[in-house]
Design brief:
alpha/beta, eight-stranded parallel sheet, 9 helices, 39% helix, globular
Length: 296
Amino acid sequence: MECSEVKIALDPTPFHHSHGLLEFPRVVADLGYKYMQMTPHADFIPFYNHPKADDELVGQLSKACKDAGIEIASVLPVLRWSGPDEDAREAAVRYWKRAIQITVDLGVSTMNTEFSGRPEKAEESERAFYRSMEELLPIIEREGIDLLIDPHPDDFVEEGLAAIRVIRGLNSKNVGLVYVASHSFHMKNAPLEIMRAAGDKLRLVHVADTMDHHASHGLRYITNPPGNPVRVHQHLKIGDGDVNWDEFFGGLKEIGFLDREDTVMVSSVFAEDDNAADVSRYQLETMTQRIEKASL
């Protein structure tokens, strides 16, 4: 079904509760996808802790992908490499080294992640991030890894343009940006402004919809007590929220994202596990149609 160079991948998170790690490749293939994104999983690279996949399991996963006729487009660890706690940061660097090795052994060259710091300690988190990268960047560059980072809500970098500046400060062509559509309303800057500023640094996007929490004068969502430092967003299927999809896909076409071989587009709907198969098929069909429309 895919109609351009961009790799269209499925994030299998909605199937974590119903299938084992080695079943994911067949699930992804049966849903019509050619690519899969490996996100945090208890048997693989769990959130914030040491990777749990040994060489044998990595080999089994690689074989399962080959048998199913799909490829892993990207590996997504979430580790506290920008954490202001130094012990946690040092541990995260060690975990990152193993995660990179797993990715290389799988024959994958793209990793995407979050900054994973704290917004209330932004300066400390930025220092921690650059400190970690002093050790990790030489490994990333040596292994030819494309490392792409998402400015996630509740992180020390939440805004799109600010994230580009932090990434640019590394002075490495191996590091780029992830744009998560369902984070659009937290990134402050307009989607097209972020995409144009990122240019070829934008090499991976997550496709899911969300409601604009700024709507109704900020009263679309109410938390108690007022002023709670919470970040509200969803990962809904395309069309169930307020994301401007014409702008999103049009912007990707404008910057050349849709025509490149090194870019990845991931379906990342997490709100409908009870209907995950149908939603995944809908996402693939809709993404493909949107790409075709943007390319006319």
